[in-house]
Amino acid sequence: MAHHPSPQDYRFDYFNVTFPAEYVAHVEINRPDKLNAFFEQMWLNLSTIFRKLSFDPHVRAILLTGAGDRAFTAGLDVKAASQGTLSQPTTSSPDPARTATTLRRHILDFQSCITSVEKCEKPVIAILHGISYGLAIDLSLAADIRLSTTTTRFSVKEVDIGLAADIGTLSRLPHAVGNASWVKDVCLTARVFDSEEALRVGFVSEVFNDKNAAVAAGLEKARLIASKSPVAIVGTKELLNYSRDRPVQDGLSYTAVWNAAMVQTKDVKDAMLSGLQRRKPTFEKL
């Protein structure tokens, strides 16, 4: 049996981090009384958690959910934001360029916190349930696999609070969904859509009856991923994300260089032999 990381290493306000199965971490956004809405400390904590999990040799797959049944996350805590960055000039200078520079730094910082989910070496499975608005879309698009429930409600909410979404949705959603008209529809109208529609366009890959069923299926998927060679899994996530953003030839070249090193792993022999011998392989930590 694998040693689990110590939960004490993952004590962060507004998040529960547990280890429900061998090599699987479960990150739960934990602010259910506020529909798991985010304020600054939360996105900074999220980033720290995913950077730690990325390098944790006891973790090979990650589940991401929201506490309670009402929401995965309702997005940015608008009240907190209106008292902070969005409300007043962030410098004492009246000069627009200086104010813009401060805001730009802030936005880039926020973007990079959400990108830490995408940059995490380990695959992340997001379970979208209940209210999944605004930041929920940014965050789940940085994950690798999205599952939802029959009662999930989605919205790219930002135009309703007077701004263009700036934390990732407008850059990632067109890559995740092959329908540009639909992407512009939901981003320009901020209308609420359901799981049936999300599944039809490919935003989520599976829909379950309720949160419990979705979490159970996500955990089963995470277990399956965690049973594979971690060298193979880390490489597959890296190469898919690299290739998504570049021409095919660039992806092929990078893959050739990557695997020139990575196919030299003992894992290949172990995986092949276990297949021939019909036994479950075990792989060294990475």
UniProtKB/TrEMBL annotation:
Stored PANTHER family:
DELTA(3,5)-DELTA(2,4)-DIENOYL-COA ISOMERASE, MITOCHONDRIAL (PTHR43149:SF1), ENOYL-COA HYDRATASE (PTHR43149)
The record lists the organism as Westerdykella ornata
- What's the family? Belongs to the enoyl-CoA hydratase/isomerase family.
Q: Does the keyword Lipid metabolism apply?
A: yes
Q: Supply the SUPFAM superfamilies for this chain.
A: ClpP/crotonase
Give the record's GO biological process terms. fatty acid beta-oxidation
A GO molecular-function term, please?
Answer: delta(3,5)-delta(2,4)-dienoyl-CoA isomerase activity
Where does this protein reside within or beyond the cell? Answer: Peroxisome
Q: What name appears for this protein in its UniProt entry?
A: ClpP/crotonase
Keywords carried by this UniProt record: Acetylation, Fatty acid metabolism, Isomerase, Lipid metabolism, Peroxisome, Virulence
GO cellular component terms listed in the entry, alphabetical order:
mitochondrion; peroxisome
Enumerate the InterPro entries for this protein.
Answer: ClpP/crotonase-like_dom_sf, Ech1-like, Enoyl-CoA_hydra/iso, Enoyl-CoA_hydra_C
Kindly tell me the pathway this chain contributes to.
Lipid metabolism; fatty acid beta-oxidation; Mycotoxin biosynthesis
Mainly localized where? other
